[in-house]
Amino acid sequence: MSDYTDGQLYIRYLKDNDEDSFRILFEKYKDSLFLFLNRIVFNEDDAEELMMDTFAILSSGTAKYKERDNISFKTWLYAIAKNQAKMFLRKNKTSFIELDENNLSENGQVLSPESNLLTNERNSELYVALNHLDYDTRQVLYLIYFENMSAEEISKIMKMNIKKIYNITSRGKAALKDKLERMGYTWNI
């Protein structure tokens, strides 16, 4: 199965009812999608439910994905999840709680206890500082720092033109650096 792209796995699931393909996609994206959604709704239970709703949409085949060069499966998936979260927020007023830290490095490798501690401390500081930024800035920087997405991918998820994403990123990095420095940290962003 590793020879297939994520988009091909999803198409294979839809056409051949290949449950293994869907399971691979679910395992690959469930944690990062949960964290992304939790940054929007600030409630772990709601984020988990929204993550499951997103996969239910995929499972039902109601969202139509076509492999294209200009949009990845991950970008498409996150756009669906973001729309689910926006509908949820319109319908409900949620309470705020913080999310748990992830124990993986940027490339998905399990961290050593020492590296894990440093990464968790860095991520914790970033989470606190991000919470002081406006919604769009917080989302853009989260997708950059925690999901390693490009500006092009983010523009599709956020439904904003790329120039606006670059502007938000530039202003957001400056605001984030300023906030971190006021918290007593020096940071190269």
Task: Record keyword descriptors for this entry.
189 residues, mainly alpha, 8 helices, 0% strand
Describe this structure in words.
The chain is mainly α and 189 residues long. 68% of the residues lie in helices and 0% in strands. The protein contains eight helices and no strands. Helix 1 (6-16) packs across helix 2 and helix 7 packs across helix 8 (162-182). The chain starts with 5 loop residues before the first helix and ends in a 7-residue tail after the last helix.
Describe this structure in a few short sentences:
The protein is 68% helix and 0% strand. It has 189 residues and is an all-alpha fold.
Question: What about the largest sheet?
Answer: none
Low-confidence stretches: 94-118
Please tally the β strands and state the result.
0
* Tally of alpha and pi helices: 8
Structural class: mainly alpha
Give me the Rg, rounded.
Answer: 17 Å
Mean pLDDT: 80
What level of helicity do the residues show? 55-70%
Indicate the proportion of strand residues: under 5%
Order of helices and strands: HHHHHHHH
From the spread of the alpha carbons, the general shape counts as globular
For the termini, the CA-CA separation is 37 Å
